[in-house]
Amino acid sequence: xxxxxxxxxxxxxxxxxxxxAVRLTGSGLGCPNWPLCAxxxxxxxxxxxxxxxxxxxxxxxxxxxxxxxxxxxxxSWRVRAVRRDLFAISAVVLGLVALQALLGGFIVWxxxxxxxxxxxxxxxxxxxxxxxxxxxxxxxxxGPRELAVPKPFMILTHVTTVVMAITVLFGVLTTGSGPHSxxxxxxxxxxxxxxMSHIHSWPGYAAFALTLALLVWAAARRLRPLKxxxxxxxxxxxxxxxxxxxARNGLPELAVGVHMVLAALTAAAMTVVVLxxxxxxxxx
Length: 284
Fold this sequence. Notes:
The protein is mainly alpha-helical.
């Protein structure tokens, strides 16, 4: 179960990196068909370019990812009598993985529609967070849980979570209006990308300030989420630095890809912080 859970988390993170590579190299239509890559062929043909290999590589990861999700579900089913939480989480993961595969087909059919691509990324990011939650719950003692921090601290943590979600949302919209459309023949029209990048940065800095307040509070009171708040703060600092760098240097592809993956890992760290707000109840 532990192997399957870690495989699921790593593969869901990896597919964000490969999906970003597809978009940033203009390989979104490298396989112009779905579920086949080319007419009459599941794999790239000699007539297709290297873009096909990049797109097909991203599709290939979906297979092991689905197997890992199914494995975790089956193993969670065996312990469902005492760990209903694990079975519920694994069922959600498998459902979202299947939805992602179907949505990927629609993205190809609708020629990389920016809104569908944004939803595709948002689901992948959510899967990273949910699989991270599974890892935390898998290692936690089962049974009732109780609040381990002061209530105002809990409220501030949830406010930070909302602000971070808003940051991710505007990040998706910013990318959707930017130059990396996934294929050289597709042009994005709509909101100005420079304006969107500024709007995206505002909740990002707010999330940084709120996380800093939580970190100082947790350090002063030695609260349970302290370790993961420190990890979250480190991830945020790197994420903001990468964001500023890419905005000031013409959105280089590698920096944009790193920014996409870091967003998912930062959101996963925020998820673990939220789960650390509670501990197993003293009385069983």
